[in-house]
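Lecture notes, unit on protein representations.

Consider one protein chain, 244 amino acids long.
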Amino acid sequence: MERNRGERAWILHHHPFGDGGLILEVFSEEHGRLGVLARGQRRRGRLEAGRPYWLRWAGRGELPVLQGAEEIPCSLTLQPVPALLLFYVNELLLRLTERGDPQPMLFAEMEDTLQALAAEPEAYWRLRRFERRLLEILGWAADLQCCAACGCALDEGYAQPGSGLFCAAHRRSGATPLSAAARVWLAGAMQAPPPRGLAGELRAYLAAELDQPLAGRPLESRRLLAAYLRRDRKRKTGEEMQAR
């Protein structure tokens, strides 16, 4: 029986299994995404999604058995990420990563994103950074500098989801323009918020890019998050009108 010496991992999701057990979907620092069987865990108290743990497991195959779990103290215990934002990040990882595929860079990016959203929940640009970095790390990100057809440096860029960006001469039917400002931000370090006015453009472009590896299957978290943001905008607009 193979035993894991223990490593840092985040629980993405869990669901009941058998008589009092749980199947945990975890994203670990060294092994990537894994399914782990936690026997009797429902009786002992649930492990919480969206928290970091030091996990140990043993066994071969698709579903090793949990041997130990210790929560790692962090600021998220006192200042958790809003549930919808956490749900979105977790669902992207569940849908777009493969079990047993180590992704240390993506693990670090996820931790940075969650810490940032806990400190500033309305910094939605951090989600745009995470989406772009996920596409880059998993090998699905489009080249933002050169035309996918002729290789020339882009002045005007036209996005075709899943195919890349094209110059005006090779623009395809249905391609949508991507501004130079958006391309510069996405191609950079994305350590600061994008220039004002780009939020909608970035959100639409990255959603279309993510829809390709998602194979058209909608994200439940995206639907819920969009509904929440619509209600929040209406609430703020109402408050502004009352204040006038």
